What we know:
The protein has a single domain (3-188), classed as fumarase, CATH 3.20.130. The protein is built from six helices and seven strands; from the N terminus they run βαβαβαβαβαββα. The protein has helices at residues 12-17, 35-48, 89-94, 108-117, 129-133, 173-188, and strands at residues 3-8, 23-32, 59-61, 99-102, 120-123, 136-143, 152-166. It has a five-stranded mixed beta barrel with strand order 2-3-4-5-7. Strand 6 (136-143) and strand 7 (152-166) form a beta hairpin.
Amino acid sequence: xxxxxxxxxxxxxxxxxxxxxxxxxxxxxxxxxxxxxxxxxxxxxxxxxxxxxxxxxxxxxxxxxxxxxxxxxxxxxxxxxxxxxxxxxxxxxxxxxxxxxxxxxxxxxxxxxxxxxxxxxxxxxxxxxxxxxxxxxxxxxxxxxxxxxxxxxxxxxxxxxxxxxxxxxxxxxxxxxxxxxxxxxxxxx
Length: 189
């Protein structure tokens, strides 16, 4: 299988070419935030009409890194469960966010918003947080420092591995994968 190199931020037409099941390596800039930062971003937007960064065509990685070891840029930074952000996600997508990376399935309202806005949802492999952190070459806290590990960060990444779970058309690898498994299981019975 070919691995698609993705430079981020990127244009929507590139995201629309991605299909559920595609493997990607991402280079460029992403933002890192978990549920506490998403709550604060939403509150800030509701009060001021602005987010702490221009979210148009940007991507968010759902993670909160562990403390960095001496000489390291960042500590282990594995993905967190994406459903924690589901109540905030449609608003972010409606306002320009293009890509999300986490782990686990998404709600129907998020899937509908992904389709409506031409976005994609990717998964990073859980359990390999130390390896994922090697893809993060620089990081800076840009908002909500008081949240510690859950502060909003800007990260600069190289060859960050992920897989497209939900594409712009709403095709969901978690669903199609189950169907394929059952089909194979029935053929082998």
